[in-house]
Batch of 2 targets.
Target 1
Amino acid sequence: MNQNELNPDASPQAAYGARLRRLRKERGWTQVDLARRMGYSSVHISGVENGSKFPTTRLSRSADVAFGLVGTADAFEREYREIKHGGLLEGFPEYVKYEGRAVEIRQFEVGIVPGLLQTPEYARALADSAVRRGAITPEQADERVSFLAERQAAVKRPHPPMMFVTMDESCIRRPVGGAAVMEAQLAHLTEFAALPNTLLQVAPYDIGERRTLDRPVNLLMLSDRTIIFYAESQSQGHLDRESTSVMPVLTAYHQLQAEALSQAASVAMIEQLRKGTP
């Protein structure tokens, strides 16, 4: 196989490939030898070593078995998760850790259905669109969808958190993935609203300037009553625990809920969209 000289400092992905190659050579294995041990083709191993193929969770676990690194500080799976999270905005990986053990989750979203409420097909349509734009690779799209599934599973625990979700009307009117995907997504929203631990509200267009939040917001309450605030811009995420900055956001969220439609009216609007009526 062609082996280009990879600079480990070029990127986390390059460092991963360079280390995989180094450990293989230290053992006197060819790429064919390692591929056989990992259950991959030698072409695939070459691609990871050269940095042209993005590693995955499955490949990393296979590498750990092959090199005897399972559960160690040097595990490839651990390195891969750092790479994957490195592609996320600042603060988000830490936010997700808290999200999985929050007792209350409050979210506001504009333009798209919030991640925790997305169907797999809706999430896939968004990820595939990012691939077509060249923003992420197909492998990263797969990981993005699976990572979202992990987040969704974490809040479906035996004692789930209370979930308050307020969506701008644009979230349910913006078509994503075609008619069938949107129909299933809207149906999922009505099912979410019927759960005993949820409150779903739509902030309609006609509240105009009374919409108190202009960007997506995530607020978590932990068991010790600590409140964590997370928000994103196009290029940066921000995680905050300071009450002096978190409380005004919480107040704005409550004010938005007061202006938004009730859950019954929100579900009625969603059902009208499902029937194709304005």
Target 2
Amino acid sequence: MSGPPHVDYTATSSRPPWGALPASLRTALAVALGTEILEAGPSVASGFTGGFAAPLKLADGRQIFVKAADDSQHPYLAYQREAELVPRLPKSIRVPRILATAHATEGEARWFAVASERVEARMPGMPWTPEDFAVVTATCELMADALTPSPFDDLRPFTEEIEDRNFPRYRPTEILAGKEPMPDGFQPWLPDRLQELQDLVDLYPTALAPTSAIHTDIRPDNLLIDAHNTCWTVDWNWLCLGPAWFDWVGLLPLAHRDGIDTLAALKASPLTSAAPAEHLDCFAAVLAVYFLNKLDAPPPPGCTPEIRRHQRLYAWAFLDWLALRRDWA
């Protein structure tokens, strides 16, 4: 294929219904919540995993949201990490409150469920509008302020993720050397910009030096805007350390694609008005290289094929944004 795919972030997952969860887990969750579970709504279709995620109605009148998975699935540890981290976030960050957790064993499988308050809200960025972009920008600025310096003392710097042997930080060099194939379907200028792309990635120790706690996975389906125009953030399981602007700048390539003047936004936001341009470009290069990796491989266990379409879209968008900023053609 050539060009970026369309990804509908409201329909990227395939999740089981409430009745498919083990009875032991459903009972354990009811005990943890202290009331009977009356009914479950349909599983949400956002996200890229097969973990359970749906609203539930309780006998005491509460409306909650529950996520659950067994230990054969990617979300099993992610849900536990989120349940651990969310209660420790600063109170100024709008995130659904964790209400209860539950464990169960069914046969050889271990199960985990986490219940949080339910937020009636919609997903922004489908496409980005100036109004939603302004709300999310303000939220990211508030989050960065609350998380700088990091209130956590047990987080890993994002730079260590880049140094992990599984991170493709030398991919442009490997393509130039003929050790890896050129990804197909991308911008025609990409082969001529591989060395510059690698040079930008190599700036990461300084450009992405940790100053703040960062979410690292802020994208449309991890944002919710309610009827009062309050933006909530979800899925905090990848929290680590990086520059304060990391989460917000990660939204800019797709916002640019939807017509938002992101270059003006960069100058206006206190997050980036003084940030060196090369640091921002390094970040975009690192993300582009990351998303270019394993594009044609089967999805990771427990993930849907849409995750590869998401990767391709993000790789294209970050490359396009770099081209805008660096006058690539």
